[in-house]
Structures are given as C-alpha cells and as structure tokens.
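2024-03-11 09:14:02 INFO receiving multi-entity request
2024-03-11 09:14:02 INFO entity count = two
2024-03-11 09:14:03 INFO echoing inputs for audit
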Amino acid sequence: MTIADLPDAAPVVRPGVTLTSLSEEVSARVLRPHAPRWWWVGFGISLALLLVLVVAMAWLFINGIGVWGVNIPVAWGLAIAEYVWWIALASGGTIVSALFYLTRSPWRSATNRIAESMMLSAAACAGLMPIMHLGRPGFFYWLFPYSTVMGVWPQVRSPLWWDFICLLCYILMSIMFYYVGLLPDLATVRDLAQTRRKQILYGILALGWRGSARHWRNHQTVYFIMCAIMAPMVISVHSVVGLDFAGGLTPGWHSTQFPPYFFFGAVISGLALVIMLTILVRRGYGFQDIITEYHFNALAKVMLVGSLMLGYSYLWEAWGAVYGSSVADRSEFFFRIFGFYAPSYWAKIALNILIPQLLWLPAVRRSEIGLFLISVGIIVGMWLERFVIVIPSLSHNSIPSYWGVYYPTLWDWATLAGTIGLFLTLFFVFLRLFPIVSIAEVRELVQKRGSR
Amino acid sequence: MNAPGRSYWRSLEELAETPEFAALVEREVPRFRDVLAGVDRRRFLQLMAASMALGGLGSGLSACGPEPNPRQLLPYVEQPLGIIPGRSRYYATATTLDGYATGVLVASQMGRPVKIEGNPDHPASLGAASAIMQATILGLYDPRRAQSIVGHGQIDSWDGFVTALFERRDRLMAHHGEGLRLLTGTVTSPSLTAQIAALNKDFPGMQWHQWEPLHRDEERAAAKEAFGRPLDSVYDIGSADVIFAVESDLISAVPGWLAYARHFAARRRPAETGGRMSRVYAIESTPTLIGAKADHRLALRPAELAAAMRYLAAALGAGPQQWSQAQVKDADWLKAAAQDLKQHHGRALVHAGREQPAEIHLLAHAINGALGSFGATIRLIEPVAASPGSQQQSLHQLAADMMAGKVDTLLMLETNPLYTAPADVDFAAALKKVPLSADLALYADETTLASTWHIPAAHEYEAWSDARAFDGTITIQQPQLRRLYGGHSAQELLAVLLGNTMPVDYALLRAFWQSAAKQQGHADFEQFWHESVRIGVVANSAAAPVTATPTADLAAHLPAAAAEAKGLDLIFRPDEAAWDGRFADNPWLLEMPRAFTRLTWDNAALIAPSTAKRLGLATEDVVAIAAGDRQLRAPIFVLPGQAPDCVTLPLGFGRRAGGLGVGVGFDAYALRVVASPWLVAAKSLTKTGDTLRLATVQQHDRIAGRDLVHEGTLADFVKNPHFLKHEGNNESIYPAYKYPGNAWAMAVDLNSCIGCQACVVACQAENNVPVVGKDQVLAGREMHWLRIDRYYSGAADEPSVAFEPVPCMHCENAPCEVVCPVHATVHDHEGLNLMVYNRCVGTRFCSNNCPYKVRRFNFFAYAIEDDRPAESWNPEVTVRGRGVMEKCTYCIQRIRTTQIDALRENRPIRDGEIVTACQQSCPTQAIIFGDRNDPKSAVARRKASPLDYVLLEELNTRPRTSYSALIRNRNPLIKDDEA
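2024-03-11 09:21:47 INFO inference complete, emitting structure
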C-alpha cells in the first residue's frame, strides 16, 4: 500500500475537473429534459410509499390514535421514537453543512448540498410526527404562543412547548439556510438553462444574482452568520428534544445526560445518512471526480467520533442507573438490557457502537460498500435506540402494577414506511430541481487548486 | 328512547285530563281504561305513579316513553315542585341478590335514575353499595333486555298470555292444580310468599320448586342437623376478637356482607382503636377476600379443610379426641389457632363459606358452640327465605317429574335453569315435555327460548315489590321509573293465576300490606306505608333472635373418617361479578377487574403456581378438563394463593343466550352435578396446545422494591407506633403554596380495604367512565379512574396479599401539570389537580409523567361507542370525547355542589358533607375524603396517624391521597408463614 492509496491522500477534487466542466456537469443533471431511469424508479417507489403515508394518516385521523399500539402506560410509541429519529437525521445534515463550514473543512463543499437536502426532507418528516401523534391533531396550533379568547397561553414550563418552538425555528432557519446557500447555483443554472420556462423559473429563484463582487461579499457574510447561528441551533434543537425526556419523571428518562446524548446520536445518525446518500448520488450522477475518497474518509472519521461519543453516553447511562440510588431507574435499566425489549437494546449496541469500530481501518473508510452497509446499520441502530429510549422506560415505570408492553400495530409500521416515502420523495425532488453539489463552493476549491 | 320530542304539561291535573293522555293510556296500558273510566283522578295518581305522592314525579312519567302528540309543546313556565335540574333526588328501594335484599337509594336526575347508592338506614347496606348493586342501573337501561311477549314463537300480547293462562287455569282448577309447578329462585318477599300460599290453597296439587344455582343447601342441611330445624345465622363480627374463616364469604358474598365488612374493618384499624385489632385465621382452597385480610392463612385442598376442621374441633373439645390423632398437615398452626380461639371464649367466631360441605358447616357449628359464640358473636334467627329446603333436590325432582310427564303447566319466575342446572339434570329435554311453560325473565335467555311463553320481566327498579334482608328486615321496593320495555312483575303473573285478569303491582302490594300492617298492629296504614317506602325499611321488621344449641353428639352426624385428598379437585365458585350468570350481560361487571386475578371479560380455570409447574401449564394455556363423562375447555390462570391440586372454575360465563355475555368465557356448569354441587374430582386435565388471550389489567404482582405498600405487625406497632415512619425529603427550591381555604385530601386505609371493587364500579357509574371491551383492555386501554392494585409478597403458593386502591393522587407538585404544553391540566387553589377536557390536545405527556399511572386516555371515542342510552349517563359529569386525557377528579361535581349549597347558606362546609363516589360505596370505610386544613376533620385525623404514608415519597410529588400502612395481627406462636 503506497501513500497515494490512502484515502487521506486522495484529492478533494480530481485533477480533471475544470471550472467549466464542473458547472456544466452539475447543472446538466438539473437541466436535462429527461431524468435518468434510476431516478424514475426511485421516485416511483418513493411516491408509492408516500401514498402509504396518505392512507395511514387518513386512517389515523378518521379512527383516532387508537389505531396505533399506544396504551397506558406506553402512551408514546413509534411516532415519538421516529420523531426523534428524523430530527436527529435532519440535525446530522446541519452538522455537516454548518458546523464544518465554520471549521473550513474542504470536504464539506461537495457534500453540503446533499446534507442540506436531506436535512429539509427529514425535518418535514420530523415535523409531521408530533402532530400525527396528538389525540386531537386538529388543535396542534394551540401550542402557538397566542392568547385564545379564553386568555390561555401555552404552558412555558413544558418541554414539549420548548420543543415545539425549537423545531419551528429550526425548520424555518433550515429552509432559509438552504436557500441562501443555493442562490449562486440557481444563477448558474439560470444562465445555462436552454428553455424559456426554466430560464424564468430559475431566474425568479435566483433573485437577480449576477455574481458581482458586492453580491459575493454580502453572500459570504450572510452565509457565515447563518452558519454561526445554525451550528449552535442544531445543538440546541436536539438538546431540547432530549429535554422532552429528561424533563420527565419517568425512570430511564430523568437524566441530565440527555441533551448531549441526543446530540451525539444526531451526529452519528446524520453522518450515516449523509454518507449513504452521498454514495448513491455519486454513483447515480457519476460525480466520482468531485466526490472522492477524501470525502468519505473525512465523513467516516466524523462518524467514528460520533460512535465513540455515543458509546460513552451508553456507558454513562448504564453507570448512572447501576450506581444511582433510584430503584426505579435501576430496575428500568435491567429491563432494557434483559427484558422484553432487550433484543433492540443489544442490536443498537452492535449497530451503533461495535460495528462502526471497523472505521478505524482505512480500507473500510475508503470502501463505498463497507461505508454504505455500516451507515445503514447505524440508521437502523439509531431507530432502535430511539425505540429503546421511549418505550421500555414507559413500559417499566415507577408503579409495577401498571407495567405493560407495547406492540406496534400495522398502522404504526405503515406510518414509518410512509414517512420514509415522504423523505425520499422530497429528496428526489431536490435531486431533480436543484444542483445537488454546490457548484459555487466546488468551483472555489478548483480555483484554489489551480492557484496552488 | 323513541320519542322524538318532549312535551311538557303544567300540572298533573292537566296531564291526566288531556285526551292525548287518555289515548296514551289506551295504547300503553289498556287495562287502565277501567280505572280512568271512573274519572277518579286521585285513584289514578295512586295507581299509575304513586311515586309522585312520595316525591317521585319525574321518576313516574316525565322521562320516558312516547308522548301523545310530539308536535304539541307546552312551555316550561313553572318548575314542577321538587325537580331542580342538576340536582339528584333519592328514592329508597332495595335490590335483591339470590333473593336477599340490600337497601339502596336511587339517585334520580330530572326523573331519570342515574346512580345507585347504599341506603344508610338499611341494615344490609349501612350506606355502602357493592359493585353488583352499582351495576344494576346499567342492567335497568340495557337495550338488550327482552321487550316483547312471545308465545309459541310468535310475538304476542299480555292479553294473549292472560287468556292462555286463564284457559289453563280452569283445567287446573278441575284437577286441583295437579300438574301445576312453580319454579322460583330463593324467595324472601312476604307478598310473593303470601301469593304462593294462596295459590297452594286454590291448587292443592301445585308444587313450588326453588332453584338458586348459588344455593345455600349445605349450610341449611348443617343447620338442620345441628339445631333440629333450619335456622339462619346473623353474625356480630364487631364483637369477635378472633375469627376463623373456612373459605368464608363473610365479607364478600353472604347476604349482608356489606354490613359484615363494615364491622370487620372497624376492628382492623389499630391506629384508631389504640392498638387493638381482631385476629383472623383463614383456611381455604381458593383465595377469598377475608383470606387476603387474614393474619394467618393456609391454602388447603377441600379434603384437607375437612381434616383441619376435625382437628380443630377435637382440639377445642367439640369433637372426638381421636380426630386429633389423625395426620394433619400444619397441626402446629391449627393448634396455635385453637389455643387462640379458646382464649377468646365468647369473642370468637368460626365461619364456613357457602360452598363448604355440610360436614364442615356442622363442625363450625360445633366449634362455635364450644366457643360460646351463639348468643355472643352469632345470632340465630328463623330462616329469612320462604320454605328453605334443598334446592338441589327440588330442581332434580322437578326435572324428573317433567320427564315423567307429570307437569303440564310450569311457571318460571326469574330463574334460568336451562343454563344453571347441574349437568346431570337435563332440563332442556324435560322442558320439551311440558305443554305450557311460561318464563318471566329480563332477557331472552336460554330457558326463555325453550319455553312456550316468554314474559319480559319488569326490572326491580320498575315494579312494586318487597323483599327481606339477611336479618329479616323488610324493604318495600318502589319503582324508579315507568317500565322501559313493558315487562311484568312476578306478583302480577301469579295474580293472573289467582283470578285477577288485570293485576297491577302497586295495588297487589298495597292490598297485601294493608292486611299485613293490620295484623302487625299498625293503626294508621297510610303513615306506615309512607314511612316504610320513604325510608326503605319497614320499621322493626328484623327477625327476632331464637335460642338454640347445636347438637352435642357431633360424631354421630359425620362420617367416621375424613375423605382422602387425591387427584385433582375441581371446585365451582361464583364469579365475583357475573355471579351465577345473571350479570353476564352487564358490561361494567364484565370489565370489572376481579380482586385476585385482575381479569376482565373472561373466566379462567384458577390453578396454583406449584400445580401449574408440575403440569407444565402457564396462564392462557387452554386445557380440556374432564369430570365424569363430561368435558369442557378452559383457559388456565395461575393464581398465587390457590391450594395445590385444586382447580377453581368460576361459574356464570359461557352464556348461550341473553345479552352481551353470550359466548364470553366458558360454562363451568357443564361439569357440575347434583350429588356434589361445589366439588368434583377431575378425571383428566390436558393441555390442548391452544391459547386464549386473557385481559388482565395487572401483569406484575410484586412491588419490586418500590415504596408502595407499607406493612408491619401489630406487635411492632404497639411497641412503637411510628415504627414505619421514615424521614421524608420534601425540599423544594420554591416556597410552598399555602392553600388558605379548603385543602381537599383523601386517606385510604390499607387495613380496611378488602378488595371488593365496589369503589371501582361506583366511580365508573358516577363519572361516566366508559366500557372499552376486551380487545381494548388487552391493548392496555382500560378506563377505570380508580383501580385496586393487588400485590403479593412471600412465597408464590402462600402469598401475603395487599389491596391498594389507587385514584389520582392530586399531587401538590404534580408532575403532569408542568409537562402539558397547553395548560390542559392545572392546579386549583384548593389543591385539586384539574383536568380541562376542552383544552386537551392529547400529547399524553401527562400520563407518561405520572408516576402513579392514574391517567386514562380516550384512544377511541369510547363513550360514544358505549351502547347505553343517553339518559343513563350522569348529567353532572362531562362525557369525554376522543383524543382527550381524563382521570379521577375527587368527584369535583360533588365538591362544587356542596360548595354552592354552603355559599348559598352562608356557612362553612361541614366535615363529611362531601363524599366521593368511591368513599360512599366502600363497605369498610377504607376511603375518607375531606378538608386537610381542618384538623378535626376525619381525613386530617387519619392523616395524622403514625401509619400514614404516601406512595413513592422519594419523588417529592406531595400527594394529597395518602395511605395507612397495612398491619397484621400475627400470632406469636405461628412463625412459619411470615411474609
């Protein structure tokens, strides 16, 4: 193995890429009249899954929350586990895009658009879950801070309300962040567009971007400030999701480690999904030149760090339960690891902690298949982690007479499949409508390489 | 029901004089034509709605039934006297179970009965109401009740039936009543008894048979042996220091058990009695409530019970000494118990349950005799039931005669022999040989469908009647509303046979009591009647005690040797809720968790953990059980505390016709035989490989180290009353709210709670708690606001049982309140944790955060799906819709009503003025509610007890509901069964 074979030595952008070829390559994916066959196949499957969501939601809203498996004591089921799962996936996108912008990591440039598209798609799914899970979903807007005729304001002490506000801000910010980053590329697409309709569409979306120095300077400033806001925000949004649980009195939830614990989870699961999608986009669009082993190597390392941080949280969780004085906490923890839901606990340990240790091997970090499989494993593992956090705690609560188990019903699973459909549909739409690699930023890299 | 609109009238006179009303009477009650024709309005009022005279205008006419002309509306200009919307009026009556009456007060809202309360003036209730009594209100409104007279398979009319019976009557007259048979349950009604006597005079050849599937034949046979004649026992538990219970139903099923339970519990609260407490020994095959409360309990098979009783009798000098030589398990235990009993001569009591063989009852009489219990803790009275004989034999005889063609007319009054008869009595075949069989029944049940005539019965709350309680006290039962589905009373049916073609229950009853009152020396009949009906008790009607001593020569009456215990025993017991099957159609009772199994919607074969292990069985395994040449399939339920090698089969399920209960559970009557009604030997018990999911509401039986049940012994308590207290940590960084006015609080005494579930159903009735059905219970969505947790400690085969009623704790630091994002659950200035249904969006975070898990969620629109008529709901309590959370409110509607009264009268609220539904129904006064800020209030005093504690104190929720620790009065000589 020579030095050159090591992923670390791989170039960020392959030598063949020029400024012109890059713009044309990336824009062509958007502008060509017919999408490739794989896009149609993928989009078709996504739409079918989306239809499942539509049916599942209709069934839910017509019949009531009882169509799910939730009960007393397990009043929160898959919907909340999946809410946390989706919001973590979305956060992962922001972490790649905002946090690593601030660190000026070069590998971020080719992957940030994928990450941001994923973030928006996942956030849509995340935003849907808490509303679906309400007993009276029609009244979700009562969480808005407005005074009703009765003069009743939301309960500001409730973590759910913090969560609602955080999520709302986060989704709005994410949309703006995505759009601001996309502006120069929209102008590029506009300029390269051949048909009148596309010129008008992208022309409107580009907001009159002409690429002047002044535009660039303002853009850079705004984008930097947005990153500086988004980076702490993504930490806060997931910490507050953690507080939904930590703020409760339920054994297994009532722990100060939840905010960072949830953030670590967001890092690893978000990275895993970015890697999965990057691999697919790279293959699908033939972006081998601009997305290289360099990127995978860097992403994989971050994911490995995420896995280690998560492992630390798991250890801490176990330690707190075993060492602490609360009978309920200890008994709940033993129920988690040995009880009815134990398989999901041990599966998450394997998928999130043990298997990702393979990433210590450079060969694994360079292997697309290896990375892909590990990432899928992590995403499944993180789903299981959310399940293990939400359900066994409620199931094995403080009062033994009311211990009970929860079985997801067909409609619970349909909702999961449906939100995956919603995610993929949105992602495929992003893939088709907007440049999936940031042209402007990669051009910057090409420019830098040229001047080096 | 079927009236699209309601019309109102301005006065009773106006109502009675309208032509519409005449038409209504013509259509609805044609036999009243003649009454009306006389235009004697006074008489009409007496007959038709006598409850008006007694203050029951609304209950008589206004609520139900079609109106004459729905288009004619009259304004509600003046409020009718005595009717205040939103206010309950109470009418005394009684409800009977197996013939014996318990007094009730029926709460009526705008003329609609909505709730059953116990009658404090009635000796069998003392204000308490059992779960079954509470649930009768639902039975009254049950839309599945039979509604039309059916004769020979065709819908017919009452007149048609009267004609048919009259034709038959002439023929019977000619034969002096030969071939006429009457089958009833146990009858305590003086008026019905008098009617039957009159029938016997008219038809000397008639025979009266009685059949109650849960008969007390064994008890009666033993009393006859012991005293030479059948006598009933009335117990004075309050003066019993030591109670020895042989699978006793003393505080769970005997007539009068509510009263017994009250006196029992009064002796079980050491903190209130200065450390004095009764001691209870229990030996039993299947767990009973008194066994759960016992200080020492042994689980023994039926044969071992007999041996133990012989041993005990010998040890107390009540039986031959050689009995004490026999090999008896737990001889030391029995010796210690015997010594204890002996030391409490005159203050001891031995009681054996209904299902025990005559031999054990006889032994109990002998031991009671030796202990000087008669005249002290037991009062003997002449039998309350009319003509008490062996009902087993009576039914057997009837079936044999029917088979032999000796019966041509059979009247069955509210009994269901086709379902309840022992398996070796083929009543169905016998019934086919009877040319005219008429069945008076509430439902189109098994017997009805096989009879030639079916007469829908009037519900107890729909007709005038009378009945006697366990101690002989008579109640005149008054109807609470007009008959919902037509229906006729037993008295009316028999009156036809006595020659009255237009019988009216009210007239019949009054006529009977007019002569009875005269005989008893009441000069002013109207006053006697008025007072008796109003109070719900005929004054001084309790039976006088008689003196009798049990036979001394006990051995002569008993077989020489006790039976051997071998194989598997199958024992039959009534289900706590379905009873003998008569309540198998009542959804409240079906969904009521049973005290020990916590099972709803099914019965199961109960089996001891050790036996289950030996046979390789687990809960929910379906087994085939064979006895004799009969067989049934039943799911297994492994029940700690069940005696090894004996399987309890609860009766009352597996109904084949009737209402809601059809097809629910398995029919244990299929194995019951005449010779041995409560116990048969199992030929085989084999696993079928099938399973049946059982909807139990409590899956974990132990407290798992939680701070939930404080338990100790009386000896420790006497040494140091504060022995269970530990320093709580109630720190908070916020200053505590002071609650300057009232501070509502509840205290629950674990010593008093016997696990009878009366409070659970009372809460359901009061608070419109919906029934959800078996599949939803299986999904973990039962809605009871109040539950009675049952925890075991100690060995699985001999566990110690604690019952713990858990309503909302109304925590001062309520974890539910801070997590609700929309302020749907908030705290009020008196410390109530309120639930604002309208504001709830259904995040369910409050339930997750409730450590006590007392919150219930409407996962579906349960209340809408509940098929009970709208008028049966309590109008004082919001019926909750889909997607909202609900929970115990401390009966806030009752608090507010009283507060408004007090405000209007400008006075403070008196202690005991506000009574929650659970507290009201509780036979043992385990639940006390009141103002904690008033140091003299009952609740404050109980909370000041050294035994007071709160659940999960370490969470610092500061619950308003607190508990009194469970204290056992252990015999220091018995060491082995310490929990």
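2024-03-11 09:21:48 INFO post-check: The first strand of chain B starts at residue 88 and ends at 97.
2024-03-11 09:21:48 INFO post-check: Chain B touches chain A through 56 residues (CB under 8 Å).
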